[in-house]
Amino acid sequence: MIAFPQVTPQNNSSPDKMDRDDILEPQVVEGMIAEGHTIVIFEDVVLKLDSWLHQHPGGRLAILHMVGRDATDEIKAYVKSVSVQFSNISPYPAWGH
Q1: Neighbours of 38 (CB within 10 A)
Q2: Distance, CA of 67 to CA of 37 (rounded, Å)
Q3: Cys staple from 62: which of 29, 35, 58, 93, with CB 3.0 to 4.6 Å?
């Protein structure tokens, strides 16, 4: 079973006619996943990551593991670790100076 944040449907848009700010019913999201879309939840927002799947720095399996799930904690942990990793890099490297 897929856990979704509680939402109040604003309309009955089909996935091909959705607006960026539409609130989706769980059945719509489940249908998108069943059609093969790569869907995760981040901070109560439904993200369709089809085009990002092959570009993700952690590999496609990191995303596929989270399809249909709330990935908020995982995404925040990754972004925080990357931020810490790059915090010691000077924004203006002194190449040969």
Answers
A1: 20
A2: 9
A3: 58
Kindly calculate the radius of gyration of the chain based on its CA atoms and give it in whole angstroms. 17
Tell me the two tokens of residue 84.
């810490």
CATH of domain 22-81: 3.10.120.10
Measured CA to CA, the distance from residue 24 to residue 14 in angstroms comes to 10
Report domain extents, the chain. 22-81
End-to-end CA gap in the chain: 58
Q: How confident is the model at residue 16 (pLDDT cuts 50, 70, 90)?
A: low
> Residues 2, 68: contact at Cβ < 8 Å?
yes
